Amino acid sequence: MQYDAYWSRAAHAMAGSAIRKMGTVSVRVPGLISFAPGYPSPDSFPWDECRAITGDLLAERRTSALQYGPTRGFAPLVDAIVEVLGTRRIASRPDQVLITTGSQQGLDLVARVLLDPGDVALVELPTYTGAITAFRDVQAQLVGVRQDADGIDLDHLDRTVAHLRAEGRRVRLLYLVPNFQNPTGLLMSRARRLEVLEAAARHDLLLVEDDPYGDLYFDEGTGPDDTRPIKADDTDGRVIYLSSFSKTLAPGFRVAWLVAGEALAAKLEVAKQAADICTGALDQHIVWQAIVRGVLGAQGPRLRALYRERRDVMERALRTQLGDVLRWREPAGGFFLWAALPDAVDAEAMLERATTAHRVIYVVGNAFFVDGGGRNLVRLSFSQPSPREIEEGVSRLAAAVHEELGAGARAGATGTGGASRGTSTPRG
Amino acid sequence: MQYDAYWSRAAHAMAGSAIRKMGTVSVRVPGLISFAPGYPSPDSFPWDECRAITGDLLAERRTSALQYGPTRGFAPLVDAIVEVLGTRRIASRPDQVLITTGSQQGLDLVARVLLDPGDVALVELPTYTGAITAFRDVQAQLVGVRQDADGIDLDHLDRTVAHLRAEGRRVRLLYLVPNFQNPTGLLMSRARRLEVLEAAARHDLLLVEDDPYGDLYFDEGTGPDDTRPIKADDTDGRVIYLSSFSKTLAPGFRVAWLVAGEALAAKLEVAKQAADICTGALDQHIVWQAIVRGVLGAQGPRLRALYRERRDVMERALRTQLGDVLRWREPAGGFFLWAALPDAVDAEAMLERATTAHRVIYVVGNAFFVDGGGRNLVRLSFSQPSPREIEEGVSRLAAAVHEELGAGARAGATGTGGASRGTSTPRG
Q1: Phi, psi of B262 (to 5 degrees)
Q2: Phi and psi at residue A228, to the nearest 5°
Q3: Which of A2, A201, B249, B404 is most buried, by CB atoms within 10 Å?
Q4: Between residues 305 and 324 of chain B, which touch chain A (CB distance below 8 Å)?
Q5: In the predicted structure, residue B5 carries a pLDDT above the cut 60
């Protein structure tokens, strides 16, 4: 049976995630080293603590742990999240919080409640693919705003909004990942955050602030003052703030949350009723107990040390093996290193060689650009592979890049300037 | 801050679930006995087995149990579901199965992939509220088709489709709950199922067959032959079949699935990427082990006995206390008893008296009718309250109904014919 005639307009426009497709490659190629998915390290999961918690919850036969629960979320977890938000300098009340089935659901609900087909959603160039997918699936048009070293470029934002509004387009939201952005690893400066908030008010935009990585700063001069959410300074309810336990506890729980103005949180809750009724009860109970028992609090320093080491290993290996051809900015936190290949190298064209001949995979930059850019950029995740795998993976990547450069030279391709691009530009 | 100007058209049309609202009443009124939500009995949850399984999974530090997983679902669980489908006489392959975050997500994905704003979704009169919400949230128009004692009325279906198509409306799907329907408890006859499948082919409709209760037949002449899914006879991929572990293991896991033609399953998978990336990993692992270890298989007889007893208790109490005024059809399985009050009684108007003065709650029939009907009907769930609570709850309900009848008589309301409506009509 052919289903094409049955698809909705939204279904016609749906495209699978580039990163999810990488996952299928990983399964197909044995021994592949993957810098592709933004997965946390399983070494970071609090296995024993989760086992103790789950054993206790099920031994107590606490009905709420296995039953349907409120769409808003398990109330003690909502209360605990209000406390967590407090440590991030965000003042909130339980009726402003909605627990979501991963932050992806938060993005999806935001899209459905705020965007009509044809509306514009503003995103950074580049931006997180999950947001692209969520906004595209409601048939919004994504328009990109450039970044500089401090975050989103406000002049470009002003011009973009003015231009779109002059065309009569409806522009209601701007999506941002200020802390160790996916994919660039960029940390938006404090000054820029305040300017963005001011610009949002001026342009009457809602800000969607996605913060999965805020706790994963690598010290060395970068700390909680630098990751202070924009939401912490939002006095008029203009910011929808999303965060998650996927990176700090484990993604398998699918427990995340958002905080927004009361009426907005209530509308998003109604949208969630239709989406999945409620987030997993056992998962919410485990996360709640992980907060109450101090497991989450103990994760912070552990995770920061773990991921800092991996970043260091990756940077060292890149400097040694690709320092002459690759350019990147040192990430001060998070999971990602964002690197520019020489102009002669097309990261997408190189993917086949990298995966098949060298058994290493990355995400091509163009997955993150809504304007078609990024083909000589790669996102390298250092979060999941072990230090040893990172070293081996970078060796493989170097072999692929050097072969590609050689093939390009043989084919008389443009741009051999790669070797002159210089080495790592440590974050200043 | 006022958000009304920011809402999408979908958000403007969203309305909270009537049944979810009942939940907030339950919290507010201490000692309330609730016949409202279709919650399984916590006595039915396999607590000890889940504890053993979870302990083992976390002790093994099996990465996939806490990590992100494939959008399609954890592969060993998908394989196990293919086996489960086989026991229901449905032949399937893994690439036709999609694991969803509860069946509500399945309905939501179906709605997004198949319905554009203004399209018609056909549903039974009455139908499950979760389907109403999912279809309404994509701005589809819901059109109802009447039921008779054997299921959906095919003459009315034919006339409805013809009428809508003559008006130029796009009609692509028909949603059905053939087994112990929510809310009526109705079991569609085998003959009617085959006729529906034939009618779907004739009208070029996709059938969305929702089957959460199929395993919960009460024997006594009703068994697996009677609950055989329509999907079991679908040779051309016209049926999207949804089922769940929420009623057979526990709803707190949010693990359900759908099976559909390969291309349809693939499109629904892409839609799920945007919705929540993947269903909870630990939950999927627990369910998988519950199948592999025979826990699910052992649940069947236990659940059938448990819910049959509760139905019996409710029917006995209703016959004793309200046999002169209430009319219902004995459900041969599932969670629900669907009862008609005398015409003089408006179930919605009685709700305040029932909850406040008598501390008993039910769902008013009109929540399930897309044509505004059902105000003198009530859905009484016998699944969650204990037998003792069922007896007490029916006493309270009887007091409320008799007061309402008295008040109606005093106010000179129409229709005192209630007393002549006769008693229970056992399912023939």
Answers
A1: -55, -45
A2: -50, 120
A3: B249
A4: none
A5: yes
